[in-house]
UniProtKB/TrEMBL annotation:
This is Transmembrane protein 208. The chain crosses the membrane at residues 56-76, 123-144. Pfam families: TMEM208_SND2. Residues 153-175 are annotated as: Disordered. It comes from Vanessa tameamea (Kamehameha butterfly). It is found in: Endoplasmic reticulum membrane. Residues 162-175 have a biased composition (Basic residues). Belongs to the TMEM208 family.
Length: 175
């Protein structure tokens, strides 16, 4: 098979996207489960007396992040089938560079790292504050920043003609 042209990325088929999506969802699910298992077994064995209501609340938040991320990845990558059982759409490609799947995978990775580091100190829970900061950054860079700093459209020749016509009209019929 000949190598693809240098400037163009090779295309991937629906079956390959489907297979890679399933592998990705399973991989990040396993990261969540193993991290939670390590955290909870270590906490119960070594730090049982140090469990507070704040720790329970933060573990609930982490669990919601794990489950929510997994469900979003599963929903985005869910394929659509025709009535005869043939796959119509493999779902969104979770491994696409710069896509939403990449951001969801980042959430799982940050949550897992935070969950494991809190075994050493409760101050590592503050790493979860990076999530809203990252969301704000993405919203600013992609939506708000360009909207605030967009240059005003320049007057075109047609706009100039319309403006002159309105001025003449205003001179003839003052209000």
């Amino acid at each position: 098979m000949a190598p693809p042209p240098k400037g163009k990325a090779p295309t991937r088929g629906a079956k390959q996207i489907f297979t890679e999506n399933r592998a990705t969802v399973n991989f990040y699910r396993n990261i969540s489960l193993v991290t939670s298992l390590i955290y909870h077994s270590t906490t119960l064995a070594l730090h049982f007396r140090d469990i507070t209501s704040g720790t329970i609340l933060l573990n609930l938040i982490v669990s919601i992040l794990y489950i929510g991320s997994h469900q979003v990845m599963y929903f985005l990558s869910y394929p659509q089938y025709a009535e005869n059982g043939q796959m119509i759409d493999p779902g969104l490609d979770l491994n696409m560079e710069g896509g939403i799947g990449e951001h969801i995978k980042d959430i799982v990775i940050l949550t897992a790292i935070t969950h494991l580091l809190t075994l050493f100190s409760d101050y590592f829970w503050l790493l979860l504050l990076l999530l809203p900061a990252r969301i704000f950054w993405l919203v600013w860079v992609n939506f708000l920043g360009p909207w605030f700093f967009e240059k005003a459209p320049e007057d075109t020749e047609q706009d100039e003609k319309k403006r002159k016509k309105m001025e003449r009209k205003m001179k003839r019929f003052p209000q």
